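[agent] plan:
  1. take the single chain provided in the ticket
  2. run structure prediction with default settings
  3. attach structure tokens to the ticket
  4. add a short note for the reviewer (M.T.)
[agent] executing step 1
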Amino acid sequence: MHSEPRKIVTANSLMDIRPDVRLYTRFQSDQELPDPGDFQMFKMIVELNGCSCVLIIPGKNCFGVVVGVLGEFMGMINIPADTTGFPNEGDYNLGHCIFLQSGKVKRMSFRHVALKLSDYLEGKNENDTTELELQIP
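[agent] step 2 finished; step 3 output follows
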């Protein structure tokens, strides 16, 4: 439903947006946001990488797009969609992620990013840095 993002851009109020289109931005107050656990993992991925990124994650009857700029979570939009034809293997396993990190474009699956985040949180990262360094599998 590619018309939905256009409606969001041109909406005068978030109340004008369909209820099944979920939008979370860094500019919303805590009262306007749903349970932070709904998107906390995405926010951590953006902030720990310290770079710009776009994550595209298909779900059941929708897909989410997460955007980060220079390590700052800008927001997430979840748009209704028929995702049955979306690829779900290799670089697209559970979704597709694009990072601009260390002067390079890095593309990988969301599964790879989630596993790297898990290792990082468990203290298994090989670097001694505060950023989550993603390596292309």
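[agent] step 4 note for reviewer: Residues 3-121 form one domain.
[agent] ticket updated
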